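Q: My labmate handed me this sequence with no annotations at all. I'd like to see what the chain might look like in three dimensions before we decide whether it's worth expressing. Could you predict it?
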Amino acid sequence: MTLQSSGPIDFEQINVELGLPANTQISLNDTNIRSLSGISTGAIGMNNFYNTTKPFTSWVTKAATATYPVTKLIVFNSQTFLKYIY
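A: Here is what I predict for the chain of 86 residues:
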């Protein structure tokens, strides 16, 4: 589920989006919270969560050569590619 595009967003909604219990205590500086916002460092606010979705991972295989394919684990969120894991 994607968070809304306008109106107030609260920590309960962020928790639910991340699959956490609604009453989990979180901080805007938590790694998973920053990943959801797409803001890895610096100032962050509740408005950074509009239209965001929990990051997801996916294995992608690309044939580097016919004999040796390259497989990468990548992380995305609703806004952009985040990083290669492997």
